[in-house]
Amino acid sequence: MLLRTNTPSSRPVDGHLAALAGERVFCSEFRYRRGTEVFGEGEETEYVYQIIAGAVRTYKLLSDGRRQINSFHLPGDMFGLENGAVHRFTAEAVVETRVRITRRRSLLETMQGRESGASSFLGLVTRNLQHAENHMLLLGRKTALERVAAFLLELDERLGHPRILVLPMSRRDIADYLGLTLETVSRACSTLRGQKMLKFEGATQRQIVLLDRKGLAEYDA
Amino acid sequence: MLLRTNTPSSRPVDGHLAALAGERVFCSEFRYRRGTEVFGEGEETEYVYQIIAGAVRTYKLLSDGRRQINSFHLPGDMFGLENGAVHRFTAEAVVETRVRITRRRSLLETMQGRESGASSFLGLVTRNLQHAENHMLLLGRKTALERVAAFLLELDERLGHPRILVLPMSRRDIADYLGLTLETVSRACSTLRGQKMLKFEGATQRQIVLLDRKGLAEYDA
DNA sequence: CGTAATGTTGACTCTCATCAAGTTCTGTGG
DNA sequence: CCACAGAACTTGATGAGAGTCAACATTACG
Fold this sequence. Notes:
homodimer, 221 residues, alpha+beta, Jelly Rolls, Arc Repressor Mutant, subunit A, 2 domains, 4-stranded antiparallel sheet, DNA-binding
């Protein structure tokens, strides 16, 4: 959507982001191995990212290691574009992830030219805010089962209701997104399976078929 | 800050907001009794508000009545300015509250003229987002005591570290903001008092003196 | 194919919610 | 200004939902 218009050419690059810093590339493709940090909390907001394939988690940590994942970013999603000079959270690749990278400055310059630029930026921030508002309701007031049901429906929605929902993230990631423990997430999935709301497809527990979206939605009070 | 520049004149008006709808006032003052709704979830975003005195809570409800308060707005704060056509949550006066009201349209028009306008708007949304990000960490991962300590420090900070912290909101409001019950909030306050981190001033439990801000900050892991 | 990572399940614990009683505070009317 | 009623707050007893600890199963991956 947004970045796509500012992408005259893209060439694959290997190595860490720092390798890009000295170059004058306008926009290029990049690859992160699973678990790799894309940027850290407090780092300068020098680049803007769009996912081509894979998934990214953004999170905050407490001093003793407790983690809260703000959001998962999926193919097509943009992230890392913030108003301030430094990132307010950390971004990591959940799985092997390909990303399109643009310099923040050049993006903002391009934006200033077009009238739609500023409003695209605003729309992006607003969408994030809206998601955060809904997530606060979930974290503050929903039960474990409601949270997991809401999570599955959110992902299903964002992936366009595929027959098989392929989760890129682990139970621990889901737990840290939903404010639960991985055991509780696992139990909730088992409960929902017992209620015939979902089933696991194939060998792995990362592939889920939603059998009863309406039933799941009822949990999502 | 923002609205102040767009306030050629203001006159006090009584009665409900609807009374304003037909009028051609550019900006005026308004009063809400405690517990009164300023706007509801789903209503059109026709006005923008700035608090002169009092306090406002914004919240979302689940179908069975569970409530999550997103934020409290205090004197000087703006609220109700959203990107979309309808409000995503409800706003209510916590106590008797005086508010400055502007038509959204006229504010946005004024903004378009100035270069600073769009960035003020963006700054507002960004601050809200930043607050929401921190609050998700609190709701997802902090203990009851940590939440209450964080709440007191947040309010203390926003009110400019007064000797006496006067809470405009009830224990229930605090609970619904922190994702707890009112009993748990009450107990946490008692615990902190037992630890000499705070004391109640005068007759009421709404007036708190923070005796050990450093100690409270340590809870805020 | 074997080892490490991930996921499930069970037993038990603990924090916070619920229920309930009593106290304190506030606002209103006499 | 005081008395009263309702709201707000505190505190205690108990319970439930989710966390912790642990064992085991399954899957992924070199």
